[in-house]
Design brief:
The structure holds two protein chains of two kinds. Chain A has one domain. By secondary structure, chain A is mainly α. The longest helix of chain A is centred in the middle third of the chain and has 32 residues. Chain A is built from 14 helices and no strands. In chain A, helix 4 packs antiparallel against helix 6. By secondary structure, chain B is an alpha+beta fold. Chain B folds into two domains: about 90 residues, ACT domain (Alpha-Beta Plaits, 2-Layer Sandwich), CATH 3.30.70.260; about 70 residues, no CATH class. Chain B has a four-stranded antiparallel β-sheet with strand order 2-3-1-4, covered by helices on one side. In chain B, helix 3 runs antiparallel to helix 4. The radius of gyration of chain B is 25 Å and the shape is elongated. Chains A and B meet through helix 9 of A and helix 4 of B.
């Protein structure tokens, strides 16, 4: 079956299964919607970062990946709208704790997380990213995008994910969001480039695929480094308002998910891509990419869901279906943009 | 027995790659190439097998990792357990930075030492570069003249066809 049809069938079947089998329980609705928006959004933004780095470094090896990256950035608006919908509809459920009676929240934080200000900021981030993404056409615009992106993605991470956890703060969080985002983007590029290779000359030769494999290997380790930096400092100081975040995520069913998370985002790419031949293998590299993409979803799931999941952790068939549907729908959109670019 | 070496200098990397292919086609032994920067595809063209330096790195790094974990466990949990903030005696989270740094240190120093020893890059040793232009803008190819049948004229004309700018013959050990 060709990849386009495979993606289309998966997204249609996934949507049908979600509608008839039931979306994740109602209390999980809004954080799940947040993931539905942010997962594809992070891939489109990561593709923008990839293109910008290309321009700034004058890289030539990655020229074969450019159409794919551009196609990914063109899926930006559907993802941005889904995310905005989650924030607008779910604001009260997601961030309502700030204004609950009896909550001990610093006045500055209360003002920063006020619904109007928060949604206005989100609209500004999304509008600025959307405006800049399609205009990366040289060193100047690439540099401008990276500088603006570095600041705004950290703030967006603080706003959308860190603020889900009452009273919790981590200065590593912005970098952590970026590390996961860029790692997932490289994985999507690895999956996409092998998927779109037709019968003719592949878009990347073996040396260039090796470069992509090395980047994937390096950023898997970067993600683990950032994950550990955030975890280690909080574990070490053991301050109640900070450590509760990890206490919840490192006990019971969440502990299993957390270990799986580190396994998928770091251990799998690290061990699988150590030798040279796996980095250049058109069978192994995209499979590692798929594992990391699932890991990226799980990473976001562990960030967003614990407060809305009751006592135990659950990542069941419905959560898996939701991921499959989002990933396949994004793949379908990106592939359509890619083919449109190629026809021109 | 001192072998006679044969060096040819080129000004462009494409010429060097062509000359390497030509030399191997003529059945010459390629001893080495001196180049100002890494040239893509040269290893494959020269038929050099993949470096085993990664294994050297692994064999220095793995015991270092094991030693670091063992030592910290022994100190913190076995020989003199101290209760620090109620944390478990075997607080592996705090072992990670030290284990990581020690592994990198041993693997790094060990790999550099392996490189220097196996390549004969020892202090006070004279450089074996036949044409110092290789440190600047030239690509120098060195062939072994004896051992295999070697028709100097044929090789010479092949090199000139590849736009060699300078050729010379010299006994091994001198330059």
């Amino acid at each position: 079956m060709n990849p386009r049809r495979l993606l289309l069938v998966t997204s249609v079947l996934g949507a049908a299964a979600l509608i008839f089998g039931g979306f994740p329980e109602t209390r999980k609705l809004y954080p799940s919607l947040l993931l539905v928006g942010f997962f594809p959004l992070s891939l489109t933004l990561g593709a923008g970062v990839f293109i910008a780095i290309d321009y700034l470094t004058g890289a030539r090896w990655s020229a074969g990946l450019r159409p794919l990256a551009v196609a990914m950035t063109r899926c930006y608006w559907p993802a941005a709208l889904a995310l905005l919908a989650a924030l607008v509809l779910g604001h009260k459920e997601l961030y309502g704790w700030v204004h609950a009676t009896g909550a001990h929240v610093a006045p500055a934080q209360q003002a920063w997380l006020a619904p109007g200000f928060m949604l206005a900021r989100a609209a500004v981030y999304l509008a600025v990213w959307g405006g800049l993404l399609g205009r990366i056409r040289g060193q100047g615009s690439a540099a401008a995008f990276l500088v603006v992106f570095a600041v705004t993605v950290s703030l967006a991470g603080f706003d959308w994910f860190m603020a889900l956890e009452p009273g919790w703060a981590s200065t590593m969080f912005g970098v952590y969001i970026f590390a996961g985002l860029f790692l997932a983007t490289l994985s999507a590029l690895a999956v996409g480039t092998v998927m779109t290779d037709g019968a003719g000359e592949p878009a990347l030769n073996d040396d260039q695929l090796h470069c992509l494999g090395k980047l994937l290997f390096a950023f898997g380790t970067f993600w683990a480094y950032i994950w550990y930096c955030q975890y280690m400092l909080i574990w070490y100081t053991n301050i109640p308002e900070e450590i509760t975040y990890f206490l919840r995520r490192h006990s019971g069913g969440w502990a299993v998910l957390s270990i799986t998370n580190v396994g998928l985002n770091w251990l799998v790419p690290f061990l699988a891509l150590l030798p040279q031949w796996t980095k250049t293998s058109r069978k192994i590299l995209p499979r590692v990419g798929l594992a990391v993409l699932a890991g990226h979803w799980l990473d976001l799931y562990i960030m967003a869901l614990p407060r809305f999941s009751g006592a135990g952790a659950s990542f069941g068939v419905r959560e898996g279906l939701l991921f499959l549907w989002v990933a396949a729908a994004f793949g379908t959109l990106a592939l359509r943009q890619f083919n449109r670019l190629r026809e021109r | 027995m001192n072998r006679t070496l044969f060096a040819a200098s080129f000004e462009r990397e494409e010429d060097l790659l062509a000359a390497v292919a030509e030399a191997r086609r003529l059945g010459c032994t390629v001893k080495d190439a001196y180049i100002p920067y890494p040239v893509h595809g040269l290893d494959e063209a020269m038929g050099i097998r993949p470096s085993r330096m990664g294994w050297a790195c692994f064999f220095f790094g793995a015991p270092a990792l094991a030693a670091a974990i063992f030592f910290q466990t022994w100190v913190a949990a076995i020989d003199w357990p101290i209760n620090i903030g109620g944390k478990s005696f075997f607080f592996w989270q705090a072992f990670v930075p030290v284990s990581f740094e020690f592994t990198v240190l041993c693997a790094g120093l060990g790999t550099v030492a392996t490189l220097l020893l196996t390549q004969g890059l020892l202090p006070l040793r004279r450089s074996a570069i036949p044409d110092m232009g290789a440190t600047n803008n030239r690509f120098v190819l060195v062939l072994v003249r004896s051992g295999t049948p070697f028709d100097a004229d044929e090789v010479m004309s092949a090199f000139l066809k590849c736009r060699a700018v300078e050729t010379k013959e010299f006994p091994e050990g001198a330059s």
